[in-house]
Amino acid sequence: MAETDSQRRTGIALVIAAAVAWSTAPFFTRLLPLDSWTILFWRGLFGGGLIATVLVLTQGRAGLRDLAMMGKSGWLVASLSTLGMVSFIPALQLTSVSNVAIIIATGPFVAAAFAWIWLREAARWQTMLASVVALCGVAIIVGNARASSDIIGLALACLMTVAIAAMIVRRHRKTSMVAAAALSNLLGSIVSIPFAHGIASVTGAELVILAMFGSFQVALGLTLFVLGSRLLPSGQASLIATLETPLMPFWVWLAFQEVPALRALVGGALVMGAVIADIIGDTRAQRRLH
Predict the structure, then answer these.
(1) Quick one: CA dihedral 251, 162, 36, 50, positive or negative?
(2) Among 184, 216, 225, 259, which is least packed, fewest CB within 10 Å?
(3) Distance between CA atoms of 63 and 70, rounded to whole angstroms?
(4) Boundaries of domain holding 36
(5) Contacts of 246 (CB under 8 A, 6+ apart)
(6) What pTM value is reported for the model?
(7) How far apart are CA 92 and CA 95, in angstroms?
(8) CA triplet 157, 159, 165: central angle to 5 degrees?
(9) Count: domains in the chain
(10) What's the CA gap between 68 and 283, in Å, rounded?
(11) Burial class (CB in 10 A: 0-12, 13-18, 19+), 88
């Protein structure tokens, strides 16, 4: 029992750390006066390279095999992840961080909808109710969009959410998600090359920030989550990971005084309340089953 409690506490600490790491994406984006494609190129290069290095160092030949022999399902997962990443950075630059964070928080409900459509997995009525509440929250936020850039940013945030939800549902059990993450980051760099205008003109200071962006937010965040989620029930790990959503605008407010609009706060409260209530309900249901 003591060992189980110790593992649970370790898992919680690791997933909290992962959520903190993931939440720094808007902070790094605001620090960089670069176009989205240049950021994507360097972040993907540093993040993908470090993930691949860790995979090979920890798993040896098995890690190399996962990278070299992804298979169709692995490439599908990596491609959807790449689409999500390519949408994420421009969304942060075109609309407020709070808007992006709240839309991303609806991901579990989008994934549940895809699971029902593709796999015929029946959703709990509580999840359906929570989805309606979350949809109302998103409608409140999107309803305030007026500038064309704001609308495009919201659309890109929605595209990212759909892509990541599809990746989660369509992933195959034999697919190494760590290897797929490394590949998707490197694919993002390759896709960015024709559109990036400042790859060669990045300063030394900007390169340091980009290296921290890829290493800390991408690679370290993923590694911590993979390690922590192995020690926790999936519902509990998902619940803790939602800390990323309120932390994203918090760091930007702390560093750049970007205050969320009232509509974003109201819509965000609805979305976060729905997400947390659904995950807690699912966790309790799983405990009753066991």
Answers:
(1) positive
(2) 259
(3) 11
(4) 2-289
(5) 101, 268, 272
(6) 0.81
(7) 6
(8) 105
(9) 1
(10) 37
(11) buried
